[in-house]
Design brief:
The protein is of the alpha/beta class and 534 residues long. It has 14 helices and 18 strands. Helices cover 26% and strands 13% of the residues. It has an eight-stranded parallel beta sheet with strand order 11-10-9-5-2-1-13-12.
């Protein structure tokens, strides 16, 4: 493994490359078709060789898996499908031995309906202390037959479910994910204890799911489009929660990254004040189309949003919820929007892959930290899941119009020609792998000098060892229309050609890396990026 960049010490998170592991689909150690911690432990050398700094695990806790583990039943237990708490502790230690920090996922907006608290609330009845930890309310209408308000769901469908005694409970996601009442002291104490539990086991940080949704309007007033403040997104009281969390994290030297979807730049920045979260995901960049003007504007806006609070930007092309980069960039509409997802959207995979390679160099050259979703380093496309194998609740709650998120969650191919491409000893993974994925297997790409995996390993090695990458200033350089060119420190330059024709590279002493071959005249072809050094 390459020596760490000297900048990645106490403030390692300011320019780290963090790899996202979706445990069900990373590697299956026991052959039951579901990825697990044993599989991850066996494949940790892949992540060390890749050159990332940390590994973020989506929820690995005890869960009925209605929403891929984001319906947590017990934060202090590992789901049996993944392993045991002892295995998790060993994984954290083994990762540290390889120079990899571990980040875990917390889902504070809601729990599983199988959580002990919610089961007790159902049994206790209306007006009980147990129900006060959630949002139970009588219904509207003559007989309480209507929901207490009209809030829209984060998924499709309803946000209230009625229980046999007549009361309704709130769930912004599925009925199996009841929302917690964050004005209740038990809720705050419990989550603070959960943070300490995992920090004491050696995790370096915590990713916070749906971080802007925790606190709700006390009166649960109806939602009115365009009227602020929103009744359940970005309530001012939420910042008290994160200030108390930050005090705990600082005790352990831990860090937070929030999943914060907000259009208002000033309100977004509030989450990144020095006494709150360290970083937050940059969803504007993730959703941005492959268009030079839009990309430059998004980069400028992102850096401007973070500057007032001196927080590092984060950059991500894909995660476990969105369409794979190689597929999205090959479509007529290269932006991402949950509402626009439909079956059968055509894509030019060759074009999309070429753009995904260029986007990798663009992203890794930007100032701040980078999140890399598993399989992106292999150039995996979105997989088409047979209708009878789809598991994602987004599909079912949309009435079948939304294909869901399973296509980006398909197990990784490790070994060409092996059953299930080496994902596990079994032959029937929890989601089916496409029949033509031999070409994406890790072992095959490891020997191919022009593979996506080789590109990522080379780029990450340069980012780790060459001074000038990571946190720091960015300066735009003059360039023709359709070209993005910017300088970093120490003579580094990144050029991305989004034109329809090759472009000449600016003067330089060394071509460090290109996402594809230059043309015969040494020009940068369309949808190609290059790193230069003066």
């Amino acid at each position: 493994m390459a020596a760490p960049n000297p900048s990645r010490t106490a403030d390692w998170w300011r320019d780290a490359v963090i790899y996202q592991v979706y445990p069900r689909s990373f590697a299956d150690g026991d052959g039951d078709g579901t990825g697990d911690l044993a599989g991850v432990r066996a494949r940790l050398p892949h992540l060390a060789e890749l050159g990332v700094d940390a590994v973020w695990f989506t929820p690995w806790y005890a869960s009925p898996m209605v929403d891929g583990g984001y319906d947590v039943a017990d934060y202090r237990a590992i789901d049996p499908a993944f392993g045991t708490l002892d295995e998790a502790e060993k994984l954290i230690a083994e990762a540290a031995d390889l120079g990899l920090r571990v980040i875990v996922d917390i889902v504070p907006n809601h729990v599983s309906d199988q959580h002990a608290w919610f089961r007790a609330a159902l049994a206790a009845g209306p007006g009980s202390p147990e129900r006060a930890r959630f949002h139970f309310r009588p219904g509207r209408g003559e007989h309480g037959e209507l929901p207490p308000n009209d809030w829209p769901s984060q998924f499709s469908g309803d946000t209230w479910t009625r229980v046999p005694d007549g009361e309704w409970y709130l769930h912004l996601f599925t009925p199996e994910q009841p929302d917690l009442n964050w004005s209740h002291p038990d809720v705050r104490r419990e989550h603070e204890d959960v943070l300490r539990f995992w920090f004491e086991r050696g995790v370096a940080g915590v990713r916070i799911d749906s971080a802007a949704l925790l606190t709700k309007d006390p009166a649960l007033r109806d939602f009115v489009e365009g009227v602020d403040p929103h009744p359940y997104i970005d309530q001012d009281e939420i910042h008290d929660v994160y200030r108390s969390w930050r005090a705990i994290a600082d005790t352990y030297g831990g860090v937070f990254v929030g999943e914060v979807w907000l259009p208002d730049a000033e309100r977004f920045a509030r989450y990144l004040r020095p006494d709150e979260l360290h970083t937050a995901f940059n969803f504007n960049f993730l959703a941005c189309p492959w268009e030079p003007g839009r990309l430059r504007a998004t980069i400028d806006d992102t850096l401007a949003e973070h500057a007032p609070v001196h927080a590092p930007a984060t950059w991500v092309l894909c995660n476990h919820d969105v369409t794979r980069t190689a597929t999205r960039y090959g479509r007529a509409d290269t932006a991402f929007d949950f509402a626009a997802k439909r079956f059968g959207t055509p894509t030019d995979l060759e074009l999309g892959t070429r753009r995904a390679r260029a986007a990798a160099l663009l992203t890794l050259a930007l100032p701040g930290s980078v999140y890399l979703y598993q399989g992106e380093e292999l150039g995996l496309p979105e997989a088409d899941i047979p209708l009878d194998r789809i598991q994602d609740p987004m599909h079912f709650r949309s009435g079948g119009t939304d294909p869901g998120r399973d296509g980006c969650r398909v197990p990784l191919p490790w070994e060409a020609g092996a059953p299930s491409y080496g994902f596990g000893a079994g032959t029937d993974p929890w989601l089916p792998l496409p029949a033509d994925w031999d070409r994406y297997a890790v072992d095959r790409q490891s020997t191919e000098p022009d593979s996506m995996l080789t590109l990522y390993r080379t780029a990450l090695g340069l980012r780790r060892t060459v001074t000038g990458f990571g946190d720091g200033p960015l300066t735009w350089l003059p360039a023709q229309d359709g070209v993005l060119a910017f300088a970093r420190a120490h003579g580094l330059t990144c050029v991305v050609n989004l034109c329809d024709a090759p472009v000449e590279l600016p003067a330089h002493d060394e071509l460090l890396l290109a996402s594809g071959p230059l043309d015969a005249a040494g020009a940068l072809p369309p949808d190609t990026a290059a790193w230069l050094r003066a």
